[in-house]
C-alpha cells in the first residue's frame, strides 16, 4: 500500500492510532547538536513507528553542516522526529526530537511550548555543539538532563569530567546512555522525570 | 500536528496554516495540551514515571 506511485496517502497503521481513551498529553523534547542520535533515541522508545522528516543529506549541506566525526552520516533531521508512548489509557507522552543545527532554531519556539522538560543528547567527540543548545534551554527556563550518547568509537570520559567540561551546575543530572537501546533511552527519560519531580518538590528553578 | 504533517508529507508550517483555517471553519477540533505550569503537577510526573517503568 505504501509504495511509490500509489495514489492514496498511507495514514497511521491501525495499531499506531491514538486510542480514543486518550485525554491528555505530556511532551518531552530531545535536543542536541548535529548527528548525536536524537532520531535513534526517539525511535528506540516510541511505541509507534516513529515519524521522521529525515532527509538524505545532499550536496547543499556540504560545507554548511559540520559533520566532523560523523562522516558516514548520510541522513539528517530537517524538521523533527515524533514518537509516542502510552502511559495510561488516558495519558500519552509525546517525544519530539529537534534539529541541532543553528539554522533550525526557529522551530524551537512552538516545540518547547508546554514541554515538561528536555533531554540534551551529547556526543563526546563534539562537546562544543552542546553549549549552544544548553544555553538556549537555560534562557527559556526549560529544565533538562544531559545524556551522553556512548558512540562505540568515541572517547570515554568520567561523568564528573564531562560535567566540568560542559560547565553544568551540580543539580543537573548527567548520565551515559546508548540511544540505540530501548532500556537505556527509557532510563534517560526516567532520570528526567525524577529530576522534574525533585524540582516540583523543592519548588526551586521553576 | 507533527503526526499529520509527516503522514501527508506536508511541511510543518503549511500544516499549521491549513489547520488554523480548518479550526476557524470548525472542521477540526483542538484539544488543549497540558501546559507546563510554574510547578509541574507531581501526580502527572508520577504517572509518567510509572508508565515508563512498565516499558
UniProtKB/TrEMBL annotation, chain A:
The keyword Lipid metabolism does not apply. Signal peptide: none annotated. Pfam families: ATP_bind_1. SUPFAM superfamilies: P-loop containing nucleoside triphosphate hydrolases. Residues 1-20 are annotated as: Disordered. Keywords: GTP-binding, Hydrolase, Nucleotide-binding. One of its GO terms (molecular function) is GTP binding. InterPro entries: Gliding_Motility_GTPase (IPR052705), Gpn (IPR004130), P-loop_NTPase (IPR027417). It comes from the Bacteria. The keyword Nucleotide-binding applies. Belongs to the GPN-loop GTPase family. This is ATP/GTP-binding protein. It comes from Streptomyces tuirus. The lineage of its organism: Bacteria, Bacillati, Actinomycetota, Actinomycetes, Kitasatosporales.
Amino acid at each position: 500500500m505504501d509504495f511509490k506511485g500509489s495514489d492514496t496517502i498511507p495514514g497511521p497503521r491501525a495499531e499506531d492510532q491514538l486510542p480514543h481513551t486518550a485525554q491528555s498529553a505530556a511532551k518531552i523534547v530531545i535536543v542536541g547538536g548535529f548527528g548525536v542520535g536524537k532520531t535513534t533515541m526517539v525511535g528506540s522508545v516510541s511505541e509507534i513507528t516513529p515519524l521522521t522528516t529525515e532527509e538524505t543529506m545532499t550536496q547543499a549541506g556540504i560545507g554548511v553542516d559540520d559533520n566532523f566525526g560523523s562522516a558516514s552520516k548520510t541522513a539528517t533531521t530537517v524538521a523533527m522526529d515524533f514518537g509516542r508512548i502510552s502511559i495510561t489509557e488516558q495519558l500519552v507522552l509525546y517525544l519530539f526530537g529537534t534539529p541541532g543545527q543553528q539554522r533550525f532554531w526557529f522551530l524551537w519556539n512552538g516545540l518547547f511550548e508546554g514541554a515538561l522538560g528536555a533531554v540534551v543528547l551529547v556526543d563526546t567527540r563534539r562537546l562544543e555543539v552542546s553549549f549552544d543548545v544548553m544555553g538556549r534551554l537555560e534562557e527559556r527556563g526549560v529544565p533538562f538532563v544531559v545524556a551522553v550518547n556512548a558512540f562505540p568509537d568515541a572517547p570515554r570520559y568520567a561523568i564528573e569530567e564531562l560535567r566540568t567540561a560542559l560547565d553544568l551546575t551540580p543539580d543537573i543530572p548527567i548520565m551515559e546512555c546508548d540511544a540505540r537501546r530501548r532500556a537505556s533511552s527509557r532510563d534517560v527519560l526516567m532520570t528526567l522525570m525524577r529530576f522534574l519531580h525533585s524540582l516540583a518538590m523543592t519548588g526551586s528553578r521553576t | 500536528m507533527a503526526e499529520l504533517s509527516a503522514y501527508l508529507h506536508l511541511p510543518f508550517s503549511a500544516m499549521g496554516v491549513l489547520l488554523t483555517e480548518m479550526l476557524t471553519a470548525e472542521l477540526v477540533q483542538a484539544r488543549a495540551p497540558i501546559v507546563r505550569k510554574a510547578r509541574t503537577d507531581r501526580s502527572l510526573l508520577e504517572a509518567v514515571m510509572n508508565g515508563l517503568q512498565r516499558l
